[in-house]
Each structure stands twice: as C-alpha cells, then as structure tokens.
Amino acid sequence: MSILGEQKARQATEQLQDGELWLFFTQEGSDPSVPLVFGTNSVGKAAFMLHASGPKALVSRIDAGHFEQHAAFLETRSYSTSFETDLIDWLRELSPRTVLLNFSEDDIRCDGLTHGQYLAVERLLTDALPQARIENSEAQLSRVRAIKTPEELRRLQQAIDRTITFYDRLLPTLHAGQTERQIQARMNDLAAELGTTPDMGDFGGPLVLINRVGMSHRAPTDTAVEPGDLLILDTALETEGYYSDIARTIYFLKDGENEPPEREQRVFQAIYGAIDAAFAALKPGVPGHQVDAAARQHLLDQGYPEIQHSTGHQIGRHVHDGGAVLGPLWDSKRRAPRLQAAEGMVFTLEPTVLMSPDPSMIVEENVVVTGDGARYLSQRQHHLWTAR
Questions:
Q1: Which residues form the signal peptide (predicted)?
Q2: Each residue of 93-141: pLDDT tens digit?
C-alpha cells in the first residue's frame, strides 16, 4: 500500500506551483481520489494535504494507528474533538497563497466534493486563510490519475495478462447452443478461478452480445448462440485495484465452414487496420481527437459507418478512468479529447463497426504511451476467432 501511495503522492506534489497547497477533504471515504493519490483511506473525517514540505494527513484518533502502520510517508496528526480547529491551525502554519480543491464541472473522476462539503471547506478556508485563492485541481488530478507510476503499470500489466489467459481458457469452452446468460456466468466463474473479479457494471459481469440480438450496453439474454452468429465479449478484470478492458469477437462456424465468410473477415480486417492507424498516431503531445480521427477515417475509407463512440479511453483504478480521451470533437465544450497524450498513460484502442443486424464487431486492445510512441500491453487479436 505504502509503495503505491508514496509514488503517487510524490507525483502529485510535483504538480504544485510555488505557494500552492492541495487539500483533499473526505469523510467515510467520500473522495475517491484519496486512495488514488495516497494509497489509503480513512473512516472518520479527514484532510489530506500536498505541500512543498511533503504530504500530510489530519485524521481522527481512531484512524491514526492505521496510518502509523501503513502510511509512514505521510506526516500525520490526529484530532480527538475538533477536526476544524486542528485543520485551521495547521493551514495557518503552512500559509499557502492558493488552495486546490477536488471539484470539476467536466471530469467526474476529479469531482470529489459534494456541494455541501464544498461549502463547509470554503467556510473553513475563509476563516483560516482569508487571503488565499481557491482553485479547482482538475488539471493536476486528471494528470496524476492518467500518468501511471511503475507500481501502477505493474498492476495493470498483471490484470491485462490475466485477461489474455482468461480468453485463452474461455474460447475452447464456447459452442453453439449456449445462451448469452450462460456464457456470462461461465466468464464470471472463470475470473474467480484465476483469482480475480470482473467489473460487474450494471449487468452482472462482462458484456456478452450476440450481434443479431442487438449491439448496445445491455444485460445478457436467454437467446442461444446459433451457427453463423457473431459473439462479442467485453471483459475488464481487476488486479490489486486496477482494471484491464479487452474485447474479443468470435464467429460461430456453420456446417461445412472451416473459416468465417469473406464479409465477416473484411469487417475484422477493417477494424484491425483502424487499430493500427490509432496506434501509429498515438504519441506524446498528440491530442486525443487526432488519434481518434486516424482510426475513424480508416473505417470511413473502407466504407464502414462512422464510429459511434470514442476510439479509446484510459484505464486504471476504473475501467473508464477519466482524463484524456481518444475521442471526436463532437462537443465543443468537452475538454477530454483536446488533452494531449503523455508518456505513462494507458489507453484502450477500440474502433468498432456497429451495423447490427449486419456484421458488428468490437476488438479492444490496451496500450501504454512511451517516450516516442506507444506499446501494446495486451496480445492482439490478429484474426477473427471461431467456435462451433
């Protein structure tokens, strides 16, 4: 725990300008960015702070023992009666000119304060530091979330490797006659056998979609796979708090077929080429919408419909992890597609073809941005998988 927290707290502190203090206010784990940045959390009301003098935490006396054992890199003080009085005293000692708070109108992963909590902290800061400016931490927090430390990359790679093993073990068990619901249950069981859990989403586990039933984020049905069907599987597996996100498409052979029909293979090759195009465009300093445009144009040039979503998103503590997005500029106010890729960011690449009931396919890979380009973290699906 302390390894991750120490790496992230140091990374976050490096985002500060002279005279800034970054304040994380949380109660009962209300701010989800606290475990991201500090590698731990508190039960009682607490304030976590990043300052040039080092990371700090003001926690309740009942939480203090945990921090002594598991967060030695934090300068920790405990309070027994008045959290507000002790925090005001500490803030006055540090005397920052600017205080960053975790609120955002654009990025939900950076919006860690409820309206009521914001008002409470604002009043407290007005009392403690009447001359200090209050600013939001969206730019700093999105960057800290997006750029992975070595420990985060280790956890992500392990989650991705398990997902590749997961699909390798799943494919031989698939056959016509199984229902979407049965396949999802098998996928949940297989994840448990591998010592992990899938992201349950809103539908009880991985997405399991027979193309002719309909392509959308939906729960599995009792419809059984038939020969000639395309089956799309989208799975995110967790390892030590970090998630992969990999999708695969399978064609179920009809009697007398030894490979998928040419039409289905053309769709797969178009998606494969779109992933190639996005991968080639993904470099440090390139805004996400330019990476998206490369994949989008490739599919349009092949005569397929325009992608109905972003080409890729970041993964990490969440399957959709906020920050920069490899997406189009459809919304002029949306900040995420304009953000630039940076070394250490981990993205999905998933330029899809959605034409249901005509052949629809999703192939989704995971990549990390390097110093001069990108590198695959997942083993690619090089051909349209088949089953009977």
A1: none
A2: 999 999 999 999 988 999 999 999 999 999 999 999 999 999 999 999 9
Q: Which of 247, 261, 206, 281 is nearest to 353 (CA)?
A: 247
269-311 pLDDT, tens digit per residue, is 999 999 999 999 999 999 999 999 999 999 999 999 999 999 9
The domains of the chain are located at 2-145, 147-387
The CA distance from 116 to 54, in Å, is 28
Biggest CA-to-CA distance, the chain: 79
Alpha helices in 256-375 (DSSP H): 262-281, 288-301
CATH topology of domain 2-145: Creatine Amidinohydrolase; Chain A, domain 1 (3.40.350)
The per-residue b/e assignment along 284-299, b for 16 or more CB within 10 angstroms, e otherwise, is bebbbbbbbbbbbebb
Nearest Cα residue to 340 out of 351, 330, 326, 350: 326
Pairing state between β 365-369 and 56-60:
unpaired
Does the structural domain 147-387 have CATH classification 3.30.470.20?
no
For residues 201 and 184, the answer to whether their CB atoms sit within 8 Å is no
**Whether the predicted model's global pTM rises above the 0.90 cut:** yes
Give the span between the Cα atoms of 165 and 82, in whole angstroms. Answer: 52
User: Residue 204, by phi and psi: left (phi above 0), alpha (psi -120 to 50) or beta?
Assistant: left
